[in-house]
Structure formats: C-alpha cells, structure tokens
Amino acid sequence: MASESESATTEASSFIENLTNSRNIDLSLFLPFILAFTNNSSISSTPVQDSSNPDQQTQEQTTPSEFLDRIILVNPLTQGMVVIESRSSSSFDSLLSELMRKEGQPPASQASIEALQSVEICEEGEKGECAICLDELRVGGVVKEMPCKHRFHGDCVEKWLKIHGSCPICRYKMPEEDGDLNNKSENRGRRREIWISFSFQTASANSNSENEHDHASEV
Amino acid sequence: MVDLARVQKELHECNRDVQVSGINVTLKGDSLTHLIGTIPGPIGTPYEGGTFKIDITLTDGYPFEPPKMRFATKVWHPNISSQSGAICLDILKDQWSPALTLKTALLSIQALLSAPEPDDPQDAVVAQQYLKDHQTFVGTARYWTETFAKTCAAEEKIQKLVEMGFPEAHVRSTLEATGWDENLALEKLLSS
C-alpha cells in the first residue's frame, strides 16, 4: 500500500511537472473529459487547502467570501485529474480562454503607437525591406520608425503592436496600456489548480480508492 | 486573411538557397496555407542522416500569428511529442515575431534538434530518459531516425530504380549493398 501510494505520487508529480513545465498547457487534451464545472457558493465554502502550497492556503483564507469557479478535468490516458479554481466571477468561457491564451508581450499603448515617428525615405541607402510584409521600403515613401530605429510600413507595424508591443526585429518593448496590466495581474492571482492522480484499474480498485481518499484528505 | 504575397516571397527565397541551408518548403496541395517543410538532421546528433518532414499550416493571422508546425516524421526528442509530433518551441508560441519566416522557424527547429531542453519538455517520457539514461536516449533517437526519417528517402530511391525496369527485390538488395548510393546501385544493376 505504501509503495503503491508512493508510485501514484511519483506519477502525479511527473505528470504535473510535464504540464506545468510546458509553456502553454494544452487543454485540448482534457476537453473531451471535462467532468464538472461549478460556480457555486456552497462548494466555495468547503475549506480547500493545498498542503503543498501554504501561500495558496493563505490566499484562500483571506478571500473566503468570493465565488469560486471550479473546473474538474480528467484525462483517463494519463490517469491525471486537475481541478481548476478561479476566484473571479468570470464565466466558464472566459476562464478557459484565460487559460489558453498565449502570453507574450502585451499590446503597446495606443499613445505609444500614435507617437511613432513618420520618416520619409529620401536616400537610396535608406531603403530596405519591411520585415513584416517583406515588401520594399521605397525611396519617397513614408515609413514608421520605432524608438529602436527599426523601420516598417505604418500599417504593418501598427497591426503588430496592437497584438504584441515589441519590435519584430529586436524585441524592444513598447510601453503597455496601464489598465491592462493591472487586470492581468489580478487575474493571475485569482487562479489555482489542484492536481490529483489516480488509477482506473479495477484489479487494484480498493487500494487506489484509498489513495484517492488520502489525496483528498491532504487536499 | 493570410498574406499570400508574403508567403510566395518566402517560398521563393527559401528554395533559392536550399543547397546551402538544406531547408526546403513545398506546397502540400494547391493552397498556400498548407505546406511541408523538410529539415536535415543536424550532423553530430542522433538525428544525423535523417530527413524530417514538418507539417505547416498557416492561420489567417499569419504573419502576425505563428505558423502551426508539427513533425510529420516520427522523432524521439524531449521537446517533440513522440505521439503527435507537437513541438515545444517558444518562437512557435508566445515568442513569435512577424520578422521571423518559415525558413527561420524551420532553422530554429533544426537547432532544437541539436540542443534539446529537457527542463521544458513536450514529451515527459523522452525527457526523463534524456536526463536519467542518456545512452538509451541516444540509442532510441538514432533508431527512430533510421526507422522513420530515412525510409521515405529509401522508398523513393527504390521507386526510381524500379521505374527504370529493374525488379524490386534486386533493386532493394543492390541499394543495401551499396549503402543506398543511387548512382553506385544503378551502375551495379546495369553491369549485372
């Protein structure tokens, strides 16, 4: 029993390692196996504590009155299960999109985009290629120059900076919109995940259900 | 809408120096949004000698969104799924930049083959093996290269010679005897 429990834990930790280490969690693995999604104050009042992470525990206690969104995902192939909780009042969709969103440099602020300098290409030596559309920067044409001095077509670079505020060539960081930044860090703080691993094998169903129980009580 | 003009330019540019880079991009069908890239396995790695096919799909947002790339050839590598061919590489995700191209992305994947990052794995089993039993990892990676990344080329060579009118069994044994050198095999087949 002890050794089984241990192997289950190892399996769980390697599974967690795998998923948390990968730069974006591939939720599509789990989508067909979503067991439950709740947005329920009665569940949120259940004291949920993660013994492995005292920080999260503290967070739980300091904000007991807020709603909890909880998603339980199970992958029978890896025998892994994840419980995702969010303290935001966001809907299931927005929670999922938050999880799946590819991060990266946030968009540049509107003001900084507008402040980009327009430069006219007047000498032969100044012309080149717009690294975004790979078209020529023609002599006589007007281009936008970033603070790092890299030049692009106005349309090209503005479209990019509204998605990610960094120079396509040197990754020079443009100023971000202040409001966005705050929202984002709040959202980050609101989410927690609990990982559980268990086995579906019937032969060892008894011991495994005990394992599960052990985990549950730990959690 | 995919910037088709840019894709066309990229294809032209990439295929111009295929002899130098070894990186090739071809159309999968009629559309410019489904492409196949090929990269040679880096020399001095267990992937040496293999030719790896990468399935490329361009989304509407390209080049403002990264191209979707996945290995169509099975490969044993900590950052590539041995099951699906999914690639764990930052520039194909959040670190994409529109100044990157299909060619530079493929070059990055080739560099990833040379320098695995087991601490940021795509395939946990491979990564564990890489860290804990490196000898076995190298053996498996080499075996997968032999089995999956070379057969395509071999089959093509066989096909070519069979089309010239030689019996397949004979072609196969001759190619094997000459170390899969097409020209040597042809000479041998002609003289026998």
Automatic annotation (TrEMBL), chain A:
Organism superkingdom: Eukaryota
Secretion signal, residue range per the UniProt entry: none
GO cellular component, one term: cytoplasm
GO-annotated molecular function: ubiquitin protein ligase activity; zinc ion binding
GO biological processes: protein ubiquitination
Residue span of region Disordered: 44-65
Catalysed reactions, as listed in the record: S-ubiquitinyl-[E2 ubiquitin-conjugating enzyme]-L-cysteine + [acceptor protein]-L-lysine = [E2 ubiquitin-conjugating enzyme]-L-cysteine + N(6)-ubiquitinyl-[acceptor protein]-L-lysine
Pfam families cross-referenced by the UniProt entry: zf-RING_2 (PF13639)
Matches recorded under InterPro entries: Znf_RING, Znf_RING/FYVE/PHD
Keyword line: Metal-binding, Transferase, Ubl conjugation pathway, Zinc, Zinc-finger
Domain RING-type: 130-171
Entry's EC annotation: 2.3.2.27
PANTHER family per record: E3 UBIQUITIN-PROTEIN LIGASE MPSR1, E3 UBIQUITIN-PROTEIN LIGASE PRAJA
Descriptive protein name: RING-type E3 ubiquitin transferase
Automatic annotation (TrEMBL), chain B:
UBA domain mapped to chain residues: 153-192
Catalytic residues (UniProt): 88 (glycyl thioester intermediate)
UBC core domain boundaries: 2-150
UniProt entry keywords in alphabetical sequence: ATP-binding, Nucleotide-binding, Transferase, Ubl conjugation pathway
Pfam families: UBA, UQ_con
GO molecular function annotation: ATP binding; ubiquitin conjugating enzyme activity
Gene3D superfamilies to which the protein is assigned, alphabetical: DNA helicase RuvA subunit, C-terminal domain, Ubiquitin Conjugating Enzyme
UniProt superkingdom: Eukaryota
Database matches in PROSITE patterns: UBA, UBC_1, UBC_2
Top-level enzyme category: transferase
EC number(s) stated in the UniProt entry for this protein: 2.3.2.23
Keyword Metal-binding: no
Entry keyword annotation includes Transferase: yes
Family to which the UniProt record says this protein belongs: Belongs to the ubiquitin-conjugating enzyme family.
Entries under PANTHER family matching the protein: UBIQUITIN-CONJUGATING ENZYME E2
Name assigned to this protein: E2 ubiquitin-conjugating enzyme
Organism: Anisodus tanguticus
